[in-house]
Specification:
Elements: H1 2-29, H2 36-49, H3 52-77
Helix pairs in contact: 1-2
Length: about 80
């Protein structure tokens, strides 16, 4: 039963994240509603729906890409 509750909360977080993402995109395109707060809320819902393992994999990927870009900048600037 506990596994079903975890799955249901993940689905709810992803649905809410998707709704706020759509509202955020509409808000960025139309000046009627603010878009940035909706985008931030959507990121929070998507992050809450991630498992710990996926979060670690995501951080590793981001760190690799940042290190790669920093290395490119260091070569261009002449620091390395």
């Amino acid at each position: 039963m506990n596994g079903y509750i975890k799955d249901a909360t993940k689905i709810i977080f992803y649905v809410l994240g998707s709704i706020f993402l759509i509202l955020g995109i509409i808000g960025v395109l139309l000046p009627i509603i603010p878009g940035i707060p909706f985008l931030i809320i959507s990121v929070l819902f998507f992050a809450a729906g991630m498992t710990r393992r996926k979060r670690k994999e995501f951080k590793k990927k981001i760190n690799r890409e940042v290190k790669k870009e920093v290395g490119k900048v260091e070569k261009v600037v002449g620091l390395k």
